[in-house]
Amino acid sequence: MSSCFVPNGASLEDCHSNLFCLADLTGIKWRRYVWQGPDSAPILFPVTEEDPILCSFSHCLKADVLSVWRRSQRPGRRELWLFWWGDDPSYGDLIHHELDAEDEGVWENGLSYECRTLLFKAVHNLLERCLVNRGFVRIGRWFVKPYEKDEKPINK
User: Fold this and answer.
1) Is pLDDT above 80 for 59?
2) What's the predicted TM-score (pTM) here?
3) Which residues pair with 28 in a beta bridge?
């Protein structure tokens, strides 16, 4: 039995959410891009503005593409995962030219635990961005909307 590394010590089974009722998961597709980095060792990562993974991730966020990046278990490698529904979109203007599409999949072929975990993370990142853009503040695990002085109370 293989174990999956999870940074916070939790697993997807420990998460409780009804988020997946919002979309039709049977049509989901995904693609994984990787950046190999330089061929010579040691691997030096570029500064943030020049990092192909982070640059592409930033472009995806601005374009409202459901995406997530992570460090690969192989040293010196990072990955960018994109998720979408329906027809294959053209991400040519969002993805850095140094990134290679290494893997892709569709719901019909099954989603691995790794893929489901990253999809869950991408959805949570999207929800967090939406809440912060609407004036909510994060306190630990919770999001609260600060009371504004001129706001009319809803309930006494």
Assistant:
1) yes
2) 0.73
3) 85
